[in-house]
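Supplementary Note 3. Input sequence used for the single-chain structure prediction.
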Amino acid sequence: MSSVIGGGGTTRSTDRSPSSKRTLVVPGGDEASGWRISLDSRPGPFGLACAFGLSFLLLLVPVGCDRPSQADPPEVTGNRSPTGSAESDAATQAQQRWEAAQLRAGQGCTADSDCYSPLRCIRDGSCLPPPAMTGERAPDQSAVLCYARSGEVLFQVELAVDGPQRNRGLMHRPWLLESWGMLFLYPELQPDLSFWMANTYIPLDMVFMDQDRLIVGVIEEAVPLDRRSRSVNRPSQYVLEINAGLARRYGLEAGVRCEFLNLPPQLVPR
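The predicted structure, written as discrete structure tokens, is reproduced below.
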């Protein structure tokens, strides 16, 4: 995901919204364990038929059931176009790009631009898979907390703070964890930020905020690989990109206030 302009800045703001009794929602999990699991232990006729079919297949081919690893990324899905081509093209390109990136993981670097995208220069001067893909959180992990009507919503975030980082954004990533996003920071209010989806393989929501971290507009369900420019036609200084559908699910809309947690000191909003 790329932006057209440049800048950088932000940490914990002093904006607190309504009521400390509101529920904190971490996308992708529940309040107790961080996971939401729903199982039905009583198989119906369809379930029994599927089980029988799977047993038959196991006699023919080796099957493995395991959590996706870096070497075995999950299937990538995008918004389906009438012909299905957007989803298919994005999935194919994402798989090819990820296979090539894994061969380059661990190479030395001093900046993201030294790394084969989507790898980032994030620890010990090495090009590594980004935390929004692996879920690996730093002790002082940056985050965005929004006070939606449904409750407080928290996203762990990677930061895009300079021109090259913002231009690359979430390009070339085969997936993005539900509880993560990317926060684009600009040094000052921009009259009309514009984003596109070139080389971006996952559908996204884009949440635009002004200098006070107040949401001024949301672009929902941006389609992978679409090169059209997108804007909310309002001045903004920060943009949070998250998986498509989450803004609507958690009530992130114009007028909702957010705050930024654990940003580097030089990026704290003034």
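The domain at 2-29+131-267 is CATH 2.60.120.1140 (Jelly Rolls). Confidence is low (pLDDT under 50) at residues 2-20, 30-83.
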